[in-house]
Amino acid sequence: MGWFAVFRSRRMAVLFLLGFSSGLPLLLTSQTLQAWFTAERVSLAQIAAMSSVGLAYTFKFAWAPLLDRYRLPFLGRRRGWVLVFQVGLVAAIAAMSLFDPRRDLAAVVWVAIGIAVLSASQDVVLDAYMTDVLAPHERAAGSSVNIVGYRIAMVVSSSLAFVLADHIAWPAIWLTMSAFMLVGFAGTVFAEEPAIAGRPPRTIAQSITLPVLDLWQRYRTGAIVVLGFAAIYRFGDYFAQSLVIAFLKGGVGFDFTEIAAVYKVLGLGGTIVGGAFGGALVARFGMPRMLVAFGALSATTHLLYIWLAVAGKSMVVFCIAVACDNTAIAMGTAAFVAFLMTVCSPAVSATQFALLTSLSSVGQRVFGPLADRVVAAVGWSGYFAVCAAMVVPGLALVWFATRVADAGAPREVASSDDARVTTSLR
Fold it and tell me: Is the separation of the CB atoms in 145 and 138 below 8 Å?
């Protein structure tokens, strides 16, 4: 099928491997760590406190400028940093096997923080790498392949770890997870180093100011539209994720085993199908049309959860909702990440992409704590209706935002002592 021709390249295989490398550490410091602590009878209060380890992913933009500014003396500006973080992750994950959380809790906490920081830093560079290396027509396909690798790695680091926990000791599990990180090494070795468009920032000060000045000089007042669209397009999806597990467990009555089985199997299947078709459809019909179509599809999948709330504990409705929801999310993410790539300048893409992705998650990380109030006021059906309605503002901005983004799409960013930015169309 001609639509899928965009996937037939070495770049797509590399991005799959790098997506696996990116996704593996994420759950190791959350769900897998919780399982380990629970098995070792660590107190619930201490388990809950470990959730703050994930703050590294929220604040990754704070050190992203350093990754734009400095280049290591091997493998190039992007691949060099990726390899360093991968080596660090292999060592840090393996180090977990040396400790017992009941006796060495402080050491485990520090190693977990190290894993989270290294993982978030790897994400910053890999996002920049995708932005720099993919041609415009490859962006949606590349991001979808990367997401599939990411999700498969999450299954490995959670479900596989849980299964192994019934048969082998936890130190062996940590060593096994460390070995899986070697998959990322293959991606880094076979990856091509993207050509540098323009000159990277010369000083730390420029690495902080240049990304902002670049956005302003390319878009002027249109920058508000671009940033606003980045914040609201996925707002409803992220807001729904704040309480979807609580809804399935407390609102409908599924047990955790049922939730895990459906989410892992149908969720991953939906991600693979949605990623493949999302990338292909964007390449075939263009980003603006597909952003509208995928956004509308996402709103529709929220309505499926209303159906589940009314139907009660129905496994059939549950499976339909999860499969459709994950398919729609994968499609929307492929198109949305392609949009973000269009906005970023290669010379400072690490910082700009980190800022934009942090902004896009405000629906969950900033407004998520208000979700329980919405449920209290309008119930679960009303909650998912609100989530569906939250999609509409993003759809209204699609055509304007994509035109603004295309008009200011960067070709190069020139760095000088006064941090003057020059750009032209790709």
Answer: no
Give the predicted TM-score (pTM) of the model.
Answer: 0.73
**3-class secondary structure, 277:** helix
Compute φ and ψ for 172, nearest 5 degrees: -65, -35
Q: Which two tokens stand for residue 198?
A: 């323009």
Structure tokens at 318: 């549950």
* d(C-alpha 213, C-alpha 419), whole Å: 8
Q: How far is Cα 153 from Cα 383, in angstroms, rounded to an integer?
A: 31
d(CA 282, CA 274): 12
> What does 220-244 look like in DSSP terms, one character per residue?
TTHHHHHHHHHHHTTHHHHHHHTTH
C-alpha pair distances (Å), 21 with each of 181, 187, 242, 351, 383: 6, 8, 25, 20, 35
Indicate the SS3 state at residue 29: coil
* CA-based radius of gyration for the chain: 21
Length of the chain: 426
Phi, psi angle pair for 296, to nearest 5°: -65, -40
Cβ neighbors of 373 (< 8 A, separation 6 or more) are: none
- 200, 293, 304, 342 from 300: Cα distances, Å: 43, 11, 7, 27
**Of 224, 227, 231, whose CA–CA distance to 364 is shortest?**
231
Give the pLDDT mean for 324-348. Answer: 85
Residues 6+ apart with CB under 8 A from 321: 301, 304, 305, 307, 308
Please give the single-letter amino acid code of residue 406: D
Residues 283 and 339: beta-carbon distance below 8 Å: no
Residue 413: strand, helix, or coil: strand
Q: Return the residue matching tokens 């388990």.
A: 47
Of 394, 395, 278, nearest to 332 (Cα)? 278
Dump pLDDT digits (tens) for 209-240: 888 888 787 777 778 888 888 888 888 887 88
Tokens of 291: 């952003």
pLDDT of residue 232: 85
Cα distance between residue 164 and residue 317, in whole Å: 31
DSSP assignment of 367-399 equals: TGGGHHHHHHHHHHHHHHHHHHHTHHHHHHHHH
| Token couple for 186 | 């293959």
